[in-house]
């Protein structure tokens, strides 16, 4: 296991990690590059992409990021959407090329229009964060709509929130509910939970107890323990005195003082049994250095073969999958508690957060709030919870709301606390809904 030298290392890893081969191996396999180069020059765009990947990864020869960029550009000029998407990532990150949000946006848009889902998701994030481009909720709504139609449940969730909150256009609860249902059909647990609450309350349509029950059950199936029991899960929370209680026990207490104080992991968005049917496929994808393949295989094995799952999450994290980084950090803290592993978990959570993974931010906040292997820092914890909240992680909103309500790490601000708890409630966390009502 390598130790991450700096949290921002993952920004570079997103563009590919170097694979070192023995010189004789490079020479032996060099013909593959030559064949792809000839084919690329002949106008086969997909081979331009494959060759660019080899130059970026140092696969079957030396690494040269600038050469990779030229080849991705050539592929994009040939209307290959993946080439446009990869070129956009370079412009967005500003690695090996000057950062240019406008160019990244235009390239993502071109690839998204061509039906490339990852480009739609990247473009939506770009216009939503306000980092390299001004925040544009109108455009975000349109792009999330395209990604949702392409079957991405996460994008359906973000689109549903925009309809629900009236951002980027009209407030339309009927559309919000329909969108959450569509996202649930795409196996997004948060969408299932939102749709379940709306069906239960009669928001955006008629009350439907039977549908609500089914949606709550589906959320549990797709999302794992965090989404069971109406979103309560089995998370451990703490009250002022530090007494740990089960979430269900906390239900009848003063929930305005209950915080989530245990790090969380990403669970399979469908049952493990269903995932197992594709185990061989994910294993081969991981061998082929597909970050999502390694992550999926890790999810399948995390409870039955934790050692192998840890290696798989490590590999997926190295390849740029933030969920893999978060789950690896979770496994370190779930082990024997060695100081070295605690520090690695801290770096993994922080790196994932720097790469805009909401759960990474929340877990890092929990890490410093509970002083796991470090000095307790309420102010830093609050900042991480708020960032996680902005990235759509309901637990981040919830924990930040509790801290504002109690004046922990900041001046007590009841109005701010209620706003954060309401956001957590709107994002499907029932405990926050009860806290708002108190």
Task: Give descriptors for this structure.
Serine Threonine Protein Phosphatase 5, Tetratricopeptide repeat; mainly alpha; 2 domains; single chain; disordered N terminus; 438 residues; 3-stranded antiparallel sheet; 3 strands; 24 helices; globular
Describe the protein in words.
- This protein is mostly helical.
- The chain folds into 2 domains: 8-123, Serine Threonine Protein Phosphatase 5, Tetratricopeptide repeat; 236-437, Tetratricopeptide repeat domain (Serine Threonine Protein Phosphatase 5, Tetratricopeptide repeat, Alpha Horseshoe), CATH 1.25.40.10.
- Helices cover 65% and strands 2% of the residues.
- It is built from 24 helices and 3 strands.
- The protein has helices at 9-13, 23-41, 45-57, 65-77, 81-93, 101-113, 117-129, 137-149, 153-165, 173-185, 189-201, 209-223, 247-250, 272-276, 279-287, 291-301, 306-318, 322-333, 339-354, 358-369, 378-390, 394-406, 414-426, 430-437, and strands at 236-238, 244-246, 259-260.
- A hairpin with a 5-residue loop joins strand 1 (236-238) and strand 2.
- Helix 2 (23-41) packs antiparallel against helix 3 (45-57), helix 4 (65-77) packs across helix 5 and helix 20 runs antiparallel to helix 21 (378-390).
């Amino acid at each position: 296991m390598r130790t991450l030298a700096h949290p921002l290392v993952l920004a570079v890893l997103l563009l590919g990690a170097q694979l070192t081969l023995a010189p004789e191996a490079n020479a032996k396999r060099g013909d593959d590059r030559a064949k792809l180069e000839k084919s690329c020059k002949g106008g086969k765009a997909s081979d331009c992409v494959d060759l660019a990947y080899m130059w970026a990864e140092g696969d079957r020869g030396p690494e040269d990021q600038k050469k990779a960029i030229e080849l991705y550009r050539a592929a994009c000029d040939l209307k290959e959407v993946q080439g446009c998407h990869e070129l956009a990532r370079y412009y967005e990150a500003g690695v090996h090329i000057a950062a240019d949000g406008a160019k990244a946006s235009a390239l993502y848009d071109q690839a998204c229009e061509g039906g490339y889902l990852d480009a739609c998701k990247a473009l939506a994030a770009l216009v939503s964060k306000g980092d390299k481009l001004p925040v544009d909720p109108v455009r975000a709504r349109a792009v999330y709509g395209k990604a949702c139609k392409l079957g991405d449940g996460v994008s359906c969730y973000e689109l549903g929130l925009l309809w629900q909150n009236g951002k980027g256009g009209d407030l339309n609860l009927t559309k919000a509910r329909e969108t959450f249902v569509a996202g649930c059909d795409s196996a997004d647990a948060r969408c299932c939970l939102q749709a379940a609450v709306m069906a239960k309350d009669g928001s955006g349509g008629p009350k439907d107890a039977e549908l609500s029950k089914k949606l709550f059950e589906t959320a549990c199936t797709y999302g794992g323990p965090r989404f069971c029991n109406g979103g309560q899960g089995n998370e451990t929370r703490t009250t002022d005195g530090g007494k740990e209680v089960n979430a269900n026990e906390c239900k009848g207490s003063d929930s305005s003082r209950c915080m989530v104080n245990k790090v969380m992991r990403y669970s399979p968005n469908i049952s493990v049994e269903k995932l197992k049917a594709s185990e061989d496929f994910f294993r081969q994808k991981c061998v082929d250095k597909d970050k999502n393949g390694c992550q999926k295989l890790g999810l399948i094995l995390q409870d039955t073969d934790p050692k192998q799952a840890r290696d798989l999450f490590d590999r997926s994290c190295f390849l740029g999958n933030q969920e893999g980084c978060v789950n690896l950090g979770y496994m370190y803290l779930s082990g024997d508690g060695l100081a070295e592993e605690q520090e690695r978990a801290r770096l993994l959570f922080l790196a994932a957060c720097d790469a805009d993974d909401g759960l990474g931010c929340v877990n890092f906040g929990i890490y410093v709030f509970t002083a796991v292997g470090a000095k307790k820092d309420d102010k830093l914890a609050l900042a991480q919870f708020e960032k996680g909240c902005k990235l759509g992680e309901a637990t981040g909103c919830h924990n930040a709301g509790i801290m504002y309500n109690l004046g922990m790490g900041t001046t007590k601000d009841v109005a701010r606390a209620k706003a954060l708890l309401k956001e957590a409630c709107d994002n499907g966390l029932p405990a926050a809904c009860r806290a708002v009502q108190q």
